[in-house]
Amino acid sequence: MGIPQWNDLSDRRRLVQFCSAVYTFTMPFTFVHAADLHLDSPFRGIRDEAPEVAARLRSATFDAYAALINLCIDRDANFLLIAGDVYDGADRSLAAQLRFRDGLVRLSEAGIPAFIVHGNHDPLEGWSSALTWPEQTTIFGGDDVQTVIVEAGGNPIAAVSGISYPTQRENRNLAALFRAERPDLFQIALLHCNCGGQADHESYAPCSPDDLIRADFDYWALGHVHTMALLNRNPHIVYPGTIQGRSIRETGPRGCYLMTVGDDRDVKEEFCPLDAVRWFAREVRIEELDTVDQLEGALADDVDRVREGAEGRPAVCRLTMVGRGPLYGELNREGTLQGLLERLREQGLEDEPFVWVERLKLRGAPAIDLEQRCLEKDLLGELLRITNDLRGDEDLVERLSLALVELHEHARARRALAELTPDDFHALLDDAANLCVDLLETGP
User: Which of 220, 385, 428, 438 is deepest in the core (most CB within 10 A)?
Assistant: First the structure.
């Protein structure tokens, strides 16, 4: 076979194809891609109400990490990739560091290398103890991209390149620093970044999918986005998400990807759940319910569905009652929701694994036609028209947010209050309108 002459020396894709014809892998191999472990995450807010639930949550990130290590060993993975945010804070706890090291020791004893980068939650500038890491553990530095060759049976199978965050606020496009220099091997880039401008996450190490595709790596092992996402195939651009949900914003199965690479560089992905406790957010319709005991039964049925969906692990759920129904007024009476919540919590803790109802919300409305009622020329009609005008006010959220700045800057208030999202503001507006309807139209 003659060596072809390239007209365009920048055409690395053609070079990769040529090298793939010359070099062949001696065997398929597998690797595990995880990210955003957030070890020792505090899980605030449940400790006082249910210490036993809080204890399970507090150990959940450690339990999920142990499951990750077990998966690598049980499935005989060739290596493990961890794409940043190993710890929950820059000044990582000693307990988290020791647990992390112990897991890597187990991998090393099993002959499985691990490759790690640090992200915005655990930058290299953060405090860390003087620990000795296993010989087969590679923690990438923050000065420049480094590349390490991975072997199996004495033969090179992959090249892993990575870079850590030196500081928390990494605003450079770190993807631009990566160079694919081993086309004879399967090339992996390990990076903690915001690819594609993910709106729900800080724009650290921002880059675009095109930036990554042009770099000519076979696989981009990303971290930072907490929801699993496969942004591209050939090359693969992958977010595995968190290994353990930590709040109601991180619902559903959480885990890692087990990737199998064939001789032809074909990648087969398998998502593997690791979460020790699973979070759920569910809605319960109230339109057809006439009595509180009917509602209690409907809520209990939903808790059973949560237990089934948790697949043998404890669960934390938020139930939101939605729809227009005759129970709306009674549910707004003081103590009603709290009484239902306490009842559901008692029932959820009776069986193991438990289901803890974190919150019971009412997002329903009185059983009247609000559009028609809005046309009436009376006090309630005027209130509903004002509410509609506010819903269409594009600056409302910004003005309300500014009004709350001083409150959120107060140290004690900030610990107790979460930042309100635009959806939260509009939900509060709907609640106010529905309360007016209940008091002025259907109340005594």
Answer: 220
**What pLDDT, in 10s, does the model give residues 404-426?**
777 766 766 665 566 667 777 77
Look at the chain and count its residues. Answer: 444
Residue from 172, 222, 223, 225 nearest 201 by CA? 225
CA-based max dimension of the chain: 92
SS3 306: helix
Judgement on whether residues 164 and 300 belong to the same structural domain of the protein: no
**Cα separations in angstroms, 145 against 184, 302, 369:** 19, 49, 62
Pick the most confident of 289-293, 383-387, 398-402, 406-410: 289-293
Residue 296 pairs in a beta bridge with none
Among residues 239, 273, 307, the one where a domain terminates is: 273
Per-residue pLDDT tens digits for 214-227: 999 999 999 999 99
Determine how many CB atoms are found less than 10 A away from the CB of residue 444.
4
pTM: 0.82
Structural domain that includes position 326: 277-367
- What pLDDT, on the 0 to 100 scale, is given for residue 200? 76
Q: Map 380-432 to HEC letters.
A: HHHHHHHHHHHHCCCCHHHHHHHHCHHHHHCHHHHHHCCCCCHHHHHHHHHHH
Which of 240, 255, 273 represents a domain boundary (last residue)?
273
In contact, 44 and 93? CB cutoff 8 Å:
no
| Alpha-carbon span 256 to 271, nearest angstrom | 6
**Among residues 83, 168, 98, 171, which one has the least CA distance to residue 129?**
98
**What is the C-alpha separation between 86 and 94, in angstroms, rounded?**
13
The reply to whether 358 and 440 lie within a common domain is no
The rounded distance, in Å, linking the Cα atoms of 337 and 259 is: 46
